[in-house]
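Hello everyone,

My group is preparing for a crystallization screen and wants a predicted model to guide construct design. The compound we'll soak is flavin-adenine dinucleotide. Before spending weeks at the bench, it would help to have a computed complex in hand. I've included the protein sequence and the ligand's SMILES below. Output in structure-token form would be ideal because that's what our pipeline reads.
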Amino acid sequence: MRMYDAIVIGARCSGASTAMLLARQGHRVLVVDRSTFPSDVISTHFLWPHGMSYLNRWGVLDQVLAVTPAQTTIKVVNDGIPLTGSVPVDLLREYFRDLHGDDTGVVQSYASIRRRVLDQILVEAAAKAGAEVRTGFAVRELIRDGDRVVGIRGRTADGQTVEERARIVIGADGRNSFVARTLDLPKYDERPKCTFAYWSYFSGFDLGPAQLHRRGRLASAVVPTNFEQNMVLVWGPSEWSREFRRDVAGNFQRALDFVAPEVGEVVRTEGTREERIYGTLDQAGFLRPLHGPGWVLVGDAECFKDQCTAIGMTHAFRDAELVAAALGRWLRGEVPVDEAMAGYESRRRSQNAAAYYDYVCTLAEMRPYRHDELQLFVALRGNQQETDRFIATHGDVAPVSEFFQASNLFLLNDAAKESSAGHAIFDDFAATSRSYQQNLFA
Ligand SMILES: Cc1cc2nc3c(=O)[nH]c(=O)nc-3n(C[C@H](O)[C@H](O)[C@H](O)COP(=O)(O)OP(=O)(O)OC[C@H]3O[C@@H](n4cnc5c(N)ncnc54)[C@H](O)[C@@H]3O)c2cc1C
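Reply:
Good plan to model first. Here are the tokens for the complex, ready for your pipeline.
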């Protein structure tokens, strides 16, 4: 039987990327997925500039940009307070130097890339790098030697049962990870409060760069994507989801009209919906152990969190680069496996990573913004540098703890006192405040 250096289960953002990076180092890699490609997966597929930078570092960004629109500025409107900015290049460089030791390939643009486009490019890049790719292959068992995972048993598309062995098995198999379930890995730091999200694809209008709107306990996003369409998304607190679901199409438009009336108007009068409305009700966050004897987890398998900051794919790329670097050192015989995995773990379990996980999970509760938070957004309007830093913080480029540290907020709030006077938020403020209390879809 052929012995691989690594078997990767899952061939999307985390799996195909990890397989590609390990194969480029010259290792023998098998990557399997029960899906066939091109295909979509439940995702609204927004990629932050550091996500795009990973693609550029790996030499596949041009392929993406050939078919996908990209921009640098983002408009964020919180309870009627508009902010426009971009993730600063110097913060992107700092991010890569801190996490990966070099800042090659940094780009400032973001994009919304359909998964049927992106995942196909990644699978092809893995194959081109020399990884053996088997799609339509469902892993049914992990082969163990004592407590060590040493291989997989699975079924091919034509119904054959196949067994393969490797020095390490990488679970890149998503939030319902087969590897995690089979090994009975616990979930911890679970965050049951999350958002419901519904989205679809519309042609017929061009609203420019991405817009994110939040009003009361609801939010919406409009981002140009492939095939000259726009991804239009609404989300809100999961405790409102049952009522929302009673009339998905009606409530989708109702939510848009409430959160961003001008966007709702364009979608209603100029937009043609090209696909059905997709939705998800459960995005409860959790962490799982990162590694053990003969196995390691990457991407959603190890850490799942709500879509409200659109970060999972970028994090999957981050994990791929970190784990491939760590495993490469071990596979080349430079360090023992424990030392390699401890290096991966220390980067993945940093204070910054924990703070960002908490930031996402707290936002996902969709609590109304407090007065001091709204004041902060007003203060940012006069300060482009801090607006850009806020956007970078929201996208996990800059550390949450630095932007939200008391001294920074104090300075900004001081400035807010001067700039907030007379700032117009929604005319119908009473409706916004009512929405803090009442389920709009009840
Ligand atoms: C509603 C929603 C919106 C989102 N929007 C965004 C966004 O805008 N931006 C963003 O960055 N992230 C977003 N995310 C998160 C993002 O989709 C995930 O973080 C990302 O897909 C994780 O990639 P992954 O490779 O780890 O897992 P996945 O993409 O889930 O891929 C796992 C793969 O493993 C395969 N697999 C599983 N079990 C087996 C098995 N037993 N045998 C063989 N193959 C197997 C599956 O077929 C699948 O192809 C969103 C998530 C949700 C739910």
